[in-house]
Design brief:
- By secondary structure, the chain is an alpha/beta fold.
- 47% of the residues lie in helices and 9% in strands.
- The protein is built from 7 helices and 4 strands; from the N terminus they run H-H-E-H-E-H-H-E-H-E-H.
- Strands 1-2-3-4 form a 4-stranded parallel sheet, covered by helices on one side.
- Helix 6 links the parallel strand 3 and strand 4.
- Helix 6 packs parallel to helix 7.
- The two termini are 34 Å apart.
């Protein structure tokens, strides 16, 4: 996706090529699940509703879809509060994505558990975000996974911080969410 954008490939062509890859994977391994995650920048926010379906971000052959939109990024570029981020995420991202899901498609949540160089996100914000994503995952039957960033990017020597570099309280909050998922997945097919 990112390479396609950098070489100015039209989204329709990118989607066509990805769908060909998905069909090939399904031919070789019919029981496999395919996942597509698309980065949504703060600049995309006002176009989401119109672009998710026809000719925009829709990747209809994926079994599981996710959209990246992170508090750390929105805070840095837009200067928004955590409460405002959560409202925008729920109304603009999650609701739009659900509106365009095909029958049987599921959602993966990708929390932005990282900081950019020089950024200081309060521990309380990271803990609140963990609760926010966990609440969405356990109450929305479309959500099948939560995949937080573990590593810094764009590489191990990056000054940016991933979950593994964040304060222990944040790491422990995500470990506990993982334990809850494992505990509940053994007891029943749907997280409670």
């Amino acid at each position: 996706y990112w390479t396609a954008i950098q070489i100015k490939m039209p989204l329709s062509k990118m989607r066509h090529l990805l769908n060909k890859v998905i069909l090939t994977v399904k031919e070789i391994c019919p029981s496999s699940k395919t996942v597509g995650v698309i980065a949504i920048t703060p600049q995309d926010i006002d176009n989401l509703g119109g672009e998710l379906g026809e000719g925009g971000y829709s990747l209809p052959n994926f079994d599981i879809v996710g959209f990246d939109y992170y508090y750390t990024q929105a805070r840095q570029t837009l200067g928004i509060s955590l409460a405002e981020f959560e409202r925008i995420w729920q109304e603009k991202y999650m609701e739009n994505m659900k509106e365009f899901l095909l029958p049987g498609q599921k959602i993966v949540l990708i929390p932005g558990t990282f900081e950019f160089e020089g950024q200081k996100i309060p521990v309380e914000d990271f803990l609140s975000l963990a609760r926010f994503y966990w609440d969405r995952a356990r109450t929305d039957s479309n959500v099948v996974a939560i995949v937080p960033f573990l590593w810094a990017w764009p590489g191990e020597n990056s000054p940016n911080k991933g979950l593994k570099d964040l304060p222990p309280e944040v790491q422990n909050a995500w470990r506990e969410i993982g334990r809850k998922i494992l505990r509940h997945s053994r007891e029943c097919p749907r997280i409670k």
